[in-house]
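name: query_chain
kind: protein
chains: 1
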Amino acid sequence: MSDTLTAPTPMTSAEVVEWTKKLNYGTWRHQKTWNPMHVTDAEGCYIIDGNGKRYLDFSSQLICMNLGHKNKAVIDSIAAQAQELAYAMPTYATNARAELSRLLLEVLPEGLTKFFFTTSGTEANEAAFKIARMYTGKTKIIARYRSYHGSTTASIAATGDPRRWAMEPGGKGQGFVFAPEVNCYKCPIQHTYPGCNIACADYLEHMIANESDVAAVIVEPIVGTNGVLVPPPEYFPRLREICDRHGVLLIADEVMAGWGRAGEWFSINHWNLKPDILVTAKGITSAYVPLGLCATSTKIGDFFNDHYFAHGHTYEAHPMTLGPAIATIREMQRLDLVNRSREMGKYLGEKLTALKARHPSIGDVRGMGLFWAVELVQDQKTKAPLNTMRDKVEGKPLVVDQVAADMTKRGVTVQAWISHFVIAPPLIVTREEIDTGVAALDAALALADDHVAKLAAQA
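structure:
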């Protein structure tokens, strides 16, 4: 009998896909329709499949690869951190922990000075909820219907969109209640901006007064997967004043909109908003390694000098996640990516807006920086969406998925959700690459236009 080990036969691309489908769950979907692309390589703004075909990554994967793929400085930092210190339990201080914490003071909104490191945005939100409740001694947290805050028990309970439905009635059982989102394109309380006088904020104040025991309000300053909803200028100053008047903390979920994505280091900087707690992840390492952050005000941090901080986990402040974050932030500074996001975002916004005149299926185009949504509708006047949340949960065919599939055939990948696309290329994207992505969307929208025409003929 030979002691020589035989190398396993490499799988074909088709086998990789089949074994993945057979042994893994595809998230947020009916399993029978899952047919994942086999990705073998990536560089810059492109990913490469098992057959060697290149695709423009027009949504930065899950709106997280802000630096693009294969940034050498970040890759080198991963290797360097592994050589120096691969793990230390969170009761210890490490070089990476101290250096990143000091660097965060340079880029975070003023006043956020105490940090808890996690390995995801979900965990960062879980930490924020516990901190808010420990600090205030109150229980309830107000979220908004068009929102996503994560997939673990409390963060999914705080999520307003249909990803929450499967675990109901867990939301109310965990002390989460929901307010109307800010959506000036299609107001959920049927007002019209600017004559509304920001009625959605008044509605939220009414909830605070009548729910009682409210510890915090959590908002995505620019709503992410639920449609890149950008609030009007008056909204956040009003909300900040309401929270202060009622002694309620304001939590900003910047998991997706932070790290230059919206043309500022953090999207709340557009409104000069100072939250009590900020949570973020994704772009903090450009997703090269998993890292989340829960940052709190000095006042909250000081509270725990004499009060028990009842939170922690094994991978908190993991050195392998912190070292690459330092490299990511320095690369963003070196490449001036915040200003680049603002500049290239203006160009992208103009290109996307021009599509609306040519496509009856487009209801709205909105965004900031390199963070945009294109919303599809049955009718531009009624603003009725082509598909609904219920369609998604029930596994019905979605028009956005058909358009996205057509774009993939044309060499461009994009994130689609129910009835809109999230257009968010890496911050290093060029004008030529934007032209390529928008051209693919322009061509693929013929499918949506045909669907709209059929609906009109049936009416």
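note: Residues 72-334 form a domain with the Aspartate Aminotransferase; domain 2 fold (CATH 3.40.640.10).
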